[in-house]
Design goal:
With 141 residues, the chain is α+β, with helices and mostly antiparallel strands. The chain folds into 2 domains: 2-85, no CATH class; 91-136, SH3 type barrels, CATH 2.30.30.30. The protein is built from 2 helices and 7 strands. Helix 1 packs antiparallel against helix 2. It is rod-shaped and about 80 Å long. The relative contact order is 0.09.
Length: 141
């Protein structure tokens, strides 16, 4: 049990600290908020925290939350992109409709080529990015 002695004669219990083993822990927004609330709860009433320090901590909290949201969004975007790239080989030999400089074009995917790490569909001798794919026809069309 950890105790903190204030400038007066009182003793405050801050609780027990859990140690986690294994991978390196990350300080998430919940932990950051708990630390800030605990700091406010156990501050010295005769010498309270400066308002500018509190505002700075709130700014850090907001910044942390925005970075976590951005990280989650980028992760989802990469997963969607990888899923799209992984599906390219399944289109080989299929009849597709693609949109390019000449408008909509229907043809068979003759090959899959990778240009700077991105799959491109070769349809009737022309190269199209996956974003140009409009429709994939079934086997009987």
């Amino acid at each position: 049990m950890t105790t903190v002695n204030a400038t007066g004669s009182g003793t405050y219990n801050t609780g027990t600290a859990e140690k986690k083993t294994g991978a390196m822990q990350e300080l998430g927004k919940d932990v950051f908020l708990q630390l800030m609330v605990t700091q406010l709860k156990y501050q010295d009433p005769l010498n309270p925290q400066d308002n500018s320090a509190f505002v700075a901590q709130m700014a850090q909290f907001t910044s942390l939350e925005q970075m976590q949201n951005l990280n989650a969004t980028v992760t989802k975007l990469l997963e969607a992109q990888n899923s799209m790239y992984a599906g390219a080989p399944a289109l080989l030999g299929r009849q597709v409709e693609v949109f390019g400089e000449a408008g909509l074009r229907t043809g068979r995917v003759d090959a899959i080529v990778f240009d700077l790490g991105k799959p491109k569909l070769m349809v009737d001798g022309l190269k199209y990015g996956m974003e140009a794919l409009q429709k994939v026809f079934g086997g009987d069309e």
